[in-house]
Amino acid sequence: MLGLAVGLVVMVLVAAGSGQVAVPPFEVMGSVLHHLGIDTGPLPTHPQGENALWAVRFPRVVLAVLVGACLGVAGALLQGVFGNPLAEPAVIGVSSGAAVGACTAIVFGISLLGNLTVAAAAFVGGLGTTLAVYWLARSGGRTEVVTLVLTGIAVNAFAFGVIAFLTFVADPQAREQIIFWQLGSLNGATWSAVSAVAPLALVGLVLAASVAGRLDLLSLGEGPARHLGVHVERLRLVVVFAVALLVGAGVAFTGIVGFVGLVVPHVIRMVAGPAHRSLLAASAVGGALVLVAADLLARTAVENAELPLGMLTSLVGGPFFFWLLRRTRSRQGGWA
């Protein structure tokens, strides 16, 4: 945790100071301290330094921290409740549902909430789709993990069909906006976006912390967990709702950012072990660190251009997923 926290602070200072208006890390720290009322450290010497930091860079970096933490914790929750290291937030349809909501608002020109309309539609779509997957997977008052995963796959396929249809009927401008949203980006980060995501992220993280102990008991098996007093069905419902809240709030303003919820918790588990109290906390900090670093690479790798954030995370996460798949299969002696 100490290493991750130090790494995150350093990465935040570097990311906030990087761009066309370069600000050294010590000046970034000095600007933050002065805004906190601590008159120490150098202020940015560039005439546009303060404006670049507080109007553009800090909203983007803070949003990256929030979204990364949400995705990392969501992945750890799903891997814990499914008992499978291959689980990630897209499994239960929250990302595809958010995409359907955003695409619907874009294609039909809905603007009830002004600039926040697309983000609100994405959040509602992600939450609604996740609850629909959970309801469809229930039978006899219970929800089996395999049924939940297969239902999520079916709903994902249907959602991507809806997205394809909306893309087909959209005008060229809306089609371009849909494609850009699905690629993922923090380009539109503002303080209003941060203020909208932060409360939802806080609720989701508190819910995650509240179920950490019960997830440890569930890892013993569903039967032993019940004998130890865990209401397994209620636990799954809380986890699914928390994941929908975390991922829905995250992707609402950034678009789809894949594989963070898969890669980060698995790496943390390899280093720190499976205990969920430490795993969830470390996954939050690790997810924030990964997304801040990925966003820094996205906007600085190519001069005068910004690479899609979702593309970068997928280029790294895809091969990692394949390696994880092969490793898991070899350890289990084959899927049969």
Q: Can you give keywords for this protein?
A:
single chain, 336 residues, mainly alpha, ABC transporter involved in vitamin B12 uptake, BtuC, two-stranded antiparallel ribbon, 14 helices, cell membrane, transport, Iron complex transport system permease protein
For this structure, the CATH topology is ABC transporter involved in vitamin B12 uptake, BtuC
The structural domain count equals 1
Overall shape: globular
Number of DSSP helical runs: 14
Low-confidence stretches: none
Largest sheet: spatial strand order:
1-2
Number of strands: 2
CATH class: Mainly Alpha
Structural notes for this entry:
The chain has a two-stranded antiparallel sheet with strand order 1-2. With 336 residues, the chain is mainly α. 74% of the residues lie in helices and 1% in strands. The radius of gyration is 20 Å and the shape is globular. Belongs to the binding-protein-dependent transport system permease family. FecCD subfamily. It is found in: Cell membrane.
Quick rundown:
The chain is mainly α.
What does the secondary structure layout of this molecule look like, with pairings?
Elements: H1 2-17, H2 25-35, H3 49-82, H4 94-107, H5 117-137, E1 138-139, E2 142-143, H6 145-169, H7 172-183, H8 191-210, H9 212-218, H10 222-227, H11 232-254, H12 260-272, H13 276-300, H14 309-331
Antiparallel strand pairs: 1-2
